[in-house]
Amino acid sequence: MVDGFTLEIAGRAVAAALLHSVWQGTLAAGLTAVALRVLRGASAQARYIVACAGLTAMLGAFAITAARSAADVEGGLQTALWTALWTALQTAPSAAPSIPTAPLLPCRTAARSPRSSRR
């Protein structure tokens, strides 16, 4: 069971992370927008990877800020947050996102019979 002191630490850490995520998210979004503007003529896959990296930066900034805020309040929650972050990074499939593709199917063309073609 979680005691009130631990909930207070978690609440303060999340509140600080939410407050800081405003400017951190704005910064990450601005940098992502600039990168997407530079990559305007690039492939869709390259732009997709940049956009996913921007979203990952926002989430990572929030998690790191929450962990550091918890360390400022009390060191006990820091270990739990870092462990959760480390576990999430270890279970991530890869750094580059994979784009799902449909299997290629043979293309059917309408075969014209001599009777159906107009002359």
Describe this protein with a few key phrases.
single chain; 119 residues; mainly alpha; 3 helices; 0% strand; elongated
Give the termini distance in whole angstroms. 85 Å
Outline the low-pLDDT stretches: none
Topology, number of strands:
0
Characterize the overall form: elongated
**What is the CA-based Rg, rounded?**
25 Å
> What portion of residues belong to β-strands?
under 5%
**Estimated structural class:** mainly alpha
Mean pLDDT: 76
Mind describing the biggest β-sheet? none
Helix-residue proportion = 55-70%
- If helices are DSSP runs of H or I spanning 4 or more residues, what is the number of helices? 3
* SSE pattern, N- to C-terminal: HHH
As for the number of domains, it is: 1
Textual characterization of the structure:
The protein is mostly helical and 119 residues long. The protein has one domain. It is 69% helix and 0% strand. It has 3 helices and no strands. The longest helix is centred in the first third of the chain and has 35 residues, at 4-38. The chain is elongated. The mean pLDDT is 76.
Structural topology:
Elements: H1 4-38, H2 44-73, H3 75-91
Helix pairs in contact: 1-2, 2-3
Short characterization:
The protein has 119 residues and is mainly α.
